[in-house]
Amino acid sequence: MVSLPALVLVGFVGGVQLLESVLDGLNVRYGASAVRDAEAWVREALDVNDPEEMLAYQRSKTTLSGLQSWVGVAILLAVVVSGLYGDIARQLSATGLPSIAQGVVLLAGAVLTGRVLSAPFDAYETFVVEERFGFNNQTVALWVRDLVVSTVVALAFGGVIAGAVLLAVDALPTLWPVAGWATVVGFSLLLMVVYPRVIAPLFNDFDPVDDGALREAVEDVFARAGFDCEQIYEMDASRRSSHSNAYFVGFGRAKRVVLFDTLVDQMDRAAIQAVLAHELAHWKKAHIWKQVAASAIQMGVVFGFLWWVTTSQWVYAAFELPSETYAALGIGLLYATPVLTLTAPLTNRLSLAHEREADDFAAETMGGAAEMTRALETLAGENLSNPFPHPAYAAFNLTHPPIPERIRRLREQYGDEDVGSGVGAEDGSDVDVPPAT
């Protein structure tokens, strides 16, 4: 007979997944209606020749992602509710291995299982969806290599973190949540240094921008922003995809701004400068540290909840678990994950504020909104991004404001002489988000 806590878990996890599916459906329908209403702007400003292709891409991505999520949730709940999870935990407990080793083995099994289950969906996305819309540049051999390497990295780093937390559980029975929290936060900081120098180069080549016209443009925007020019890299993203982007990562000597080579090819120098200024704002405005602080608070709440779960006897009885803390931790994480999803509208607010602040910094650095506006239009058009997400979907899923909102806001605050191809253009392509349909 299925226990009440197991039924609650099924209802909670399944209910949140259902909410996400409803939001996905709303987003696809809302975006389709809005794109068709603003078709002239989409064609002219975003340079999308066929808006229906943009909509088809969004439908394909959303459908595949939703199917993958439901399959994952169904398998996960079946494993837990059927008692298979408890059986595995009891078998590990009977091996005589140290508790820490048992927990690491359980985590490794979960990681490997997840990779095996997601591989067919990832392959379909790469070689069918991305290929159909002209984004994929990957070979099968490169895709397999990435899968193997990323799995090894996940196992290595996941094993280290799990081992450290379980060591704290063993050594500090009453204070392990504090020690575990400190371990996770410390590892997050360490990863910000390790990722750009060790992990990212396993997948891509990063060439310093040292000379030529791009270097001159970089030096110019650094001078305008009041920085010394250093740690700017161009990444060979085109080896895998024609999608374009840029990002800021790290701190101290490990900090760097990375420009995709696809972005460099798709944008003019002034637009690239605006993107660079936007990324520099995350550095100048200490956004990384603010995000770390917010994440630390969130992790503190999670560890407090996990402590309550692992010290409550109901979890062991309800799921037929051995008296091993790591077994209860797994169940606790299943309850905690949907809560993080439901609180995403709150946690995303900080990121949204940071992106708006970075847009402002870019406009101020470039002396107006024209360059940043052009960059945003290029990013949306080249990536076939949905420019009009449903407000509810955006609240739960987006860490960046919608492109039209960002463009409209920039022009209202900083002006833009180049109004003929953007928000509020006289061709009637008003990009105000249309009402929900």
UniProtKB/TrEMBL annotation:
The active site is at 279, 359 (proton donor). GO terms for biological process: CAAX-box protein processing. Residues 210-412 form the Peptidase M48 domain. This is Peptidase M48. One of its GO terms (molecular function) is metalloendopeptidase activity. It comes from the Archaea. Its cofactor is Zn(2+). It comes from Halobellus salinus. Zn(2+) binds at residues 278, 282, 355.
